[in-house]
Each structure stands twice: as C-alpha cells, then as structure tokens.
Recover the amino acids of this structure.
C-alpha cells in the first residue's frame, strides 16, 4: 500500500484526491494546508486519514511515500525540496517550478536521494493524447516531427478564477514572474517539448494585454501570447495562447515529413492528416468523406470509453498518477522524462525573458518620446 | 438603546416612526458585499433608517457606482467605501476597526468548486470574526446564510419548512459547492462567536428577486439539457423581493433581544412554480418548456446519483436526492417568526415585486 500525502488543499487538490481514490493499493494518509480550515474541508469530503496545518507535521506523523504538491507555484521548489529531503517521491503540479534552475536542482536532489519526481502535465495523458503518442511512435509521421502547432486558449471572463485574478491586485498569480501565463501555459508548452530534440531551442515570443482586458482597466496581465520555437535539429513549433480567440482551442498539431496528426483536447478527438494529395477533383471529394469517417470513429471511441466507465474528465490525471506510482513501485521509466520537464521550464524562461525585454523596450521608447516632446517644447 | 428616527416623510419607504434599535445612528456599521445585489439595498435601507456611519466593504473588482450614488442620500450620512479582500487578515483588520455591527453579506457565489466556495465563505468569515474579536467592540454579527442549508428529507411532502427545520448533516453529499460552503459558514459563525463572545444573528433569505438578478431560480426548473424542464410544478416558491429582504436583514441587525436566533426570509403570498413560470413567459419572454412530474424528477435524481457513485464520478453528482428534496419537493414556507419577533412586514407586495422583477428582466436592466 502506497501512502500518499497532499500539500495544498485548493481547487486542484480535489481532482488529485478524487483520482488517487480510484487507484488501487494506495491511500491518502494526510493532507496539509497552511490554512488549517482548507485542510479540514478536504479531509471531510474524501477518505483521508489526517489533516494538518503544517508540512513538517504531515511528514513526521503520516510518513507518506509520495507527496502531491498542489500549492501555488511560488512554493513548489521549497516544498518539493523538503519532501525529497524527507525521503518522499514527489508529484509537482504545473508549473513544475518558477525557473529551469530550480527544476534542475530538484531533479539533481531526487537523483541523489534515489527518489522520483513528476510534473502535473496530465493533459498529455488523456485518451486522445495517448493515441497520438502511440501513432507518432509507430512511425505514422514518416520520420521526426517537422513542425508543431500548440494552441492553449483560455476564456477570460468565463471563469471564477479569472474573476478572482482580475479583481485582486494582490492575487498570487500576479506575483509569478510570468504572471497569468506562468500559471497556465505549461500544458501547451510541454506538448511541444515532448517532440523537440536537444536542450536549448531558440525561442521568440510576443505578448500583449488584449483590448478586452485593457477596457477593464487591466494593464499588468498579458493574456495574448505568440511564440516561435526552433530546436537544434530545426524542428519548429508555434505556440498560441489567447484569451480572446474563439473557439478557445486546446489543440496540438504535429506534422511529420509524410503525415500529420491533429489532437483536440476539448473534444478528445485525434485526426490523421494524410500527407499525399489525391489527384484533381478527387482531392475535393474524398478527404471530406474520410475526415467525416474519422470524426465518426472518434465518436465511437469516446462513447465506448464512456460506456466502459473510463472517460472521466480527469482521466489523464489518473493515468499520469497511476504511471508515476507504477514507476515508483516497479522502478520502471517515469511517465514524463526529466529532459521534457527541463525543456518545458527552459522554453518558459525564454518566453518570459522575451516579454520582459519587450516591456523594457516599450518603456524606453515611451521615455524617449517624452524626452523628444519635452525638447520640442523647450525649443 | 433608544433611538428616535424622525427622517422626513418624502423619502420612499423611509421610516418615520420612533424605533427602538440596539445601536445609535452614529455607531459604525460594516457591510460586507455592500456593492452586491442585496448589499446596495441594505445600505440604502440603513440610510433611510437614519444610520449615518456606514462602512461599505467591496471587492476590488466590484462596481461601486450604486454605492457612490447613495453618498448623495439626504442627511449628513458618512458612507465610507473601502475595497478589500476578506481572505486578507490585514484587510479584515482595517475593515472591522471600531465597528459595532457587521452585516456579513459577502460570500462565495457561483463557484463550482467546493474549495473556492469554502475559502470565500468560511475562511473569509473566520478572518472577519477573528479581526473583529481583536478590536473587542463588535456587539452584533449578522450572518447572511441561505435556505440551501436546510434538510427536509425526513419531512413528508407538503410540510412546513421553518427555522426549526434541521440543517443538512452531510453537506459533502449535496453535490453543491454553495450549500456545502454555506452550511460550514454557519458552523464557523457559531464556533467563532461562541469563542469570542460575539452576539450573532443568522438570516436565511429564500430566492431573492428584483432588478439585478435576472435568472430564473432552479426551484422552477433548469435549462441544462437544451430545453427548459419545469420541475417545480405546483410547489410554493420561497422568494423574497430584494427590498423586503434588505429590510429583514436590517432589522436582524438592529432589533434587541434576538441574539443567537435564525430567521428565514420569504415574502407573503408566495406564488407557485407554475404561476411564476407563466407570468415570466408572459411578461419577459416566451420559450418552450416541458413539465417534468415530481416522480420523474426524483427518479432521475436517484439514477444520476447512483450512476455517479458507481462510475466513481464519471458524471459528477450534481443531481441527487438531497438536491431534489431541497429544491423540488413540495414544501410550504413561513415568515411568521420574522413578523412576530422582528416586526417585519413586506414593503413591496408580491404582485408589485414580481412586476418590477419581470420588467427589469425584460428590459435587461441587470
């Protein structure tokens, strides 16, 4: 029986507790939040042995084998370090850490202690995402990926989270180096990182505050982001984060030298994109039919999964947790490689560095314009 | 404490008779959630009663234009607008300084997740009470709760739901973040007020109607599945017009000798779900609806609940028997305690209240 602890009892902790409860041979022995009431409410609603207001108490009294860290990202590094020092394997919710350096230090510490780490990139383990990975590994693309497009959109204004963030100038998300982007984009970036090679891709980013937010008086939060990534082997990727485009896509498109794949996370659909074109008018008539057949196939698969009681909203999280526990128990490879965790962190660091320099440039331009205007007036 | 309010009679609904209140008109009163649907009416109600030292706490994002407008209220009232977050102990300390009476209207509403609703209701309320205890001057805490805390599962159909009705003992099984948070909020109020010796009163409004709340209460039915399913049938609806509700809340803060008591707030002449829906369609907009008889809605809730358990949450238990009992079981409601112990009477009759509500829905004045 694997003993599990959860640190941080906010919204996402509910999903962790629910999915852990569905996995055999494990038990949540304790939960902890620095707000004891929050720890208590989680304890009252799920089968959990104890609740604490202090991490060291949880580690000492419940002695968990694995800790799930579901706190705000600022605290991930320190909590994960303490848990590793105490001999626990650690599942860290996304974003893994605030920067690549911190991620590397945790991984080094885990290796040194003979413990395991994973990041909460659970979207990569949904049914359709797993089918996509299997197809890519089977050679469907016809070689290494050539290009990727990752869309990760967010309906600002349609969520309580956005309301809380926009309404609170002291919200913890605003204190992240990349603010809103830092807390959200890692799912979309990790999808790209999985299929990139090397460790130091080139990153170009452009971000801005949407007119929608500006009209609400918000100038601090960047909610529109476009990124170009190119690795050492010239595999390229576009990443789009938007709070305004509709539909608010959660898609990933992977193109190889022969064929492509299109994954839709919301719809749980995976579409094969044929690389070879039919001749003349056949191209106008046959592909729509084959696409329709593929969507029907996805419908059948999704219905089948639902009827088989294997289509929970957080099925990707369950799969990831289960794979992580198996890796611990049987010493099998981790579901997410450390290379991928580090690469995700590095790309995010580069994006925020670009946005910082973009903001500095704009500030300097503004200052120069003011100086120029003053000079004209003085002249 | 005797306070004579002799405000001129020109103001709409203002008090002209002498009233015996627990507080002087100059004593500081804090209203949390003051810019909300009920909050703005409560502030106006207190001003009408002659209370002049009001501190209105709103969230950063709140649009406080209605409160700003109340600053022009006749008389020498001092409305202090402060923004803050009840999850911040510093903000709570700043808001509660010298305050003698708190009307706590702010709550986690609309959140789908239990932790969010819990944090904004329970943790926020605890922070507010602890900050008040530090100042040692709070003489009454009015907690605005909800009908959602009651359980009428053990009562037969058609029973009366009043203040003696039991509170849901297993809120985690309600499948409803709001109910869970409100039940726990009532518990934390009782606990903190007992620890800090703070006198408190709980008010539980039914569904509050009026300009600013255009939604049809789920007690009438739901449109989740593409067509509006009318589930209420001939059930009485526990509704209250927003001004009447504000009046009841104000009285709960001001009347003497009611410490530790709870009051349900519903108006007189409650309409049935059928009557409400028919009037809504006639006055606001016409749409298709199908009536789902009680036996069928109960069966649906039962099956949904069973499937949710069996499937380990593949469908969340958003429909369940507890919910059915609270929302769609035939139940009667009473405002007798409100009238006898607070001397409350609805200022706006049901017909007029519904008329104003439907007009505002139709005009989209939200």
């Amino acid at each position: 029986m694997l003993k599990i602890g959860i640190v941080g009892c906010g919204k996402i902790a509910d999903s962790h507790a629910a999915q852990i409860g569905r996995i055999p041979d494990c038990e949540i022995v304790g939960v902890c939040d620095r707000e004891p009431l929050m720890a208590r409410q989680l304890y009252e609603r799920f089968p959990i042995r104890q609740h604490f207001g202090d991490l060291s108490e949880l580690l000492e009294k419940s002695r968990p084998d694995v800790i799930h860290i579901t706190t705000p990202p600022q605290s991930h590094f320190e909590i994960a370090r303490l848990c590793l020092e105490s001999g626990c394997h650690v599942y860290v919710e996304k974003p893994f850490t605030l920067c690549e350096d911190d991620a590397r230090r945790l991984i080094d510490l885990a290796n040194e202690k003979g413990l395991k780490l994973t990041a909460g990139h659970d979207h990569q383990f949904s049914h359709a995402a797993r089918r996509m990975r299997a197809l890519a590994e089977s050679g469907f693309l016809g070689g290494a990926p050539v290009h990727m497009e990752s869309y990760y959109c967010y309906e600002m204004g349609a969520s309580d989270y956005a309301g809380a963030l926009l309404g609170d100038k002291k919200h913890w998300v605003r204190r992240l180096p990349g603010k809103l982007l830092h807390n959200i984009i890692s799912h979309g970036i990790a999808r790209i990182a999985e299929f990139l090679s090397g460790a130091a891709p080139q990153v170009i980013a452009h971000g801005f505050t949407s007119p929608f937010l500006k009209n609400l008086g918000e100038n601090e939060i960047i909610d529109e982001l476009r990124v170009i990534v190119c690795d050492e082997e010239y595999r390229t990727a576009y990443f789009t984060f938007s709070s305004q485009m509709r539909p608010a896509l959660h898609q990933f498109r992977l193109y190889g030298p022969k064929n492509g794949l299109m994954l839709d996370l919301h719809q749980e659909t995976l579409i094969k994109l044929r690389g070879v074109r039919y001749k003349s008018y056949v191209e106008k008539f046959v592909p729509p039919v084959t696409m329709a057949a593929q969507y029907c196939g996805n419908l059948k698969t999704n219905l089948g999964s639902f009827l088989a009681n294997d289509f929970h909203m957080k099925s990707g999280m369950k799969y990831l947790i289960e794979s992580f526990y198996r890796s611990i128990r049987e010493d099998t490879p981790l579901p997410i490689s450390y290379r991928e965790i580090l690469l995700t962190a590095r790309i995010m660091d580069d994006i925020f560095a670009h946005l910082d320099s973009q903001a500095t440039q704009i500030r300097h331009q503004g200052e120069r314009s003011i100086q120029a205007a003053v000079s004209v007036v003085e002249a | 404490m005797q306070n004579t309010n002799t405000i001129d009679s020109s103001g709409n609904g203002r008090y002209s008779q002498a009233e015996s209140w627990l507080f002087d008109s100059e004593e500081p009163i804090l209203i949390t959630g003051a810019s909300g649907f009920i909050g703005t009416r409560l502030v106006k109600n207190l001003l009408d009663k002659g209370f002049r030292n009001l501190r209105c706490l709103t969230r950063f994002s709140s649009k406080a234009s209605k409160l700003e407008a109340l600053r022009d209220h006749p008389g020498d009232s001092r409305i202090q607008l402060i923004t803050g977050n009840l999850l911040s102990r510093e903000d709570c300390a700043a808001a509660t300084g010298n305050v003698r009476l708190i009307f706590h209207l702010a709550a986690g509403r609309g959140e789908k997740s239990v932790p969010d609703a819990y944090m904004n209701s329970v943790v926020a309320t605890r922070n507010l009470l602890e900050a008040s205890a530090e100042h040692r001057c709070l003489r009454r805490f009015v907690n605005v709760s909800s009908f959602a805390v009651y359980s009428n599962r053990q009562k037969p159909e058609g029973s009366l739901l009043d203040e003696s009705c039991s509170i849901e003992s297993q809120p985690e099984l309600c499948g409803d973040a709001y109910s869970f948070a409100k039940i726990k909020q009532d518990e934390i109020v009782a606990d903190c007020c007992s620890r800090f010796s703070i006198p408190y009163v709980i008010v539980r409004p039914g569904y509050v109607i009026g300009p600013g709340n255009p939604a049809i209460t789920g007690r009438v039915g739901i449109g989740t599945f593409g067509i509006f399913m009318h589930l209420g049938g001939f059930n009485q609806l526990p509704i209250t017009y927003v001004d009447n509700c504000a009046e009841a809340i104000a009285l709960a803060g001001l009347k003497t000798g009611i410490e530790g008591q709870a009051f349900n707030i519903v108006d007189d002449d409650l309409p049935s779900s059928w009557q409400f829906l028919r009037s809504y369609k006639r006055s606001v907009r016409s749409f298709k609806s199908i009536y789902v008889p009680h036996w069928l809605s109960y069966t649906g809730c039962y099956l949904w609940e069973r499937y949710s358990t069996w499937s380990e949450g593949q469908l969340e238990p958003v429909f369940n028997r507890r919910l059915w009992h609270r929302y769609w079981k035939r139940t009667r409601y009473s405002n007798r305690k409100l009238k006898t112990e607070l001397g409350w009477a609805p200022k706006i009759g049901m017909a007029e209240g519904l008329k104003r509500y439907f007009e505002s829905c139709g005009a989209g004045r939200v």
